[in-house]
Specification:
The protein is of the alpha/beta class. Helices cover 35% and strands 24% of the residues. Helix 4 crosses helix 6 and helix 5 runs antiparallel to helix 8.
Length: 261
């Protein structure tokens, strides 16, 4: 499965709808503990979006530089992190950022790094890390709830947009792990890669569920009228469940320590 990187900037169109997603505290704690980042450590975040992961690290007192390509997303991130003076947000592509060599204890990316060619992102990530520094990249992975309501939604995709699959069935965690491990290893910049999976249940209202769909890039390729028809039908399915469903969520965290050059 290839990545259409031309859709990278489409997230800017739905900037306001990305603010509901947060990552589990257990995942953040795993990064802090494994990396051993000092209390005044420096973190670089690639593609910080509106600051959903940024805030979790800012609350722990770290110095954090967030790099975000989308102008509206960067503004949102700055607003969401205004209570944290150690956070700086820069509106720029990671590839264009004039790197600070060996300046950071930790580099993170939350659902973002796949938008940058790995032959660029992984070596650059390694160069900005201090000796002994860590990379922590994590993604949310599609989960098929396998419930009555989710099967109704599957049927709606088949009926309304037969050329597009329900994003909950796009790929598996195992497929994803293989791709990311290969990217780390191909760069030859990092030591052994560890992966850790986190699972939780996210209660979502109809609007929250639909916002999640609106921020999924695969939907941006569907004709607008057809897309809105699909959303309306999916909304009706959720409403039949009382306007609330329990959506299973999974995130996979990959961590590796930079090699000594």
């Amino acid at each position: 499965m290839g990545i259409d990187r031309s859709k990278r900037i489409t997230f800017e169109e739905k900037a306001d709808q990305y603010t509901q997603d947060r990552y589990p505290e257990a995942l953040i704690e795993a990064i802090v503990n494994r990396s051993g980042i000092p209390p005044e450590g420096r973190i670089l975040e690639v593609g910080c979006g509106p600051g959903n992961a940024t805030i979790s690290f800012a609350q722990r007192g770290y110095h954090l530089l967030g790099i975000e390509l989308g102008a509206r997303l960067a503004v949102l991130a700055a607003e969401n992190c205004r209570a944290f003076p150690k956070v700086q947000i820069v509106n720029l592509a990671f590839e264009a950022w004039a790197e600070e060599t060996a300046a950071f204890d930790l580099i993170i990316a939350a659902d973002a790094l796949h938008w940058i060619p790995p032959e660029i992102s992984y070596p650059k990530a390694a160069r900005i890390l201090k000796k002994g520094g860590w990379a922590a990249f994590f993604w949310t992975i599609p989960v098929d709830p396998q419930t009555g309501w989710s099967q109704e939604i599957d049927a709606l995709y088949e009926q309304t947009t037969p050329a597009f699959i329900n994003p909950n069935r796009l790929f598996t965690a195992e497929w994803h792990k293989e791709i990311i491990r290969d990217n780390f290893e191909a760069s030859q910049c990092f030591g052994p890669v560890s992966s850790q999976q986190f699972e939780w249940i996210s209660p979502q209202t109809t609007e929250q569920f639909l916002n999640g769909l609106r921020t999924t890039s695969i939907h941006h390729g569907i004709d607008e009228a057809v897309r809105e028809e699909l959303y309306a039908k999916i909304g009706n399915v959720i409403e039949k469940q009382g306007g609330m469903v329990e959506k299973p969520e999974t995130a996979v965290l990959y961590m590796a320590q930079v090699k000594e050059l």
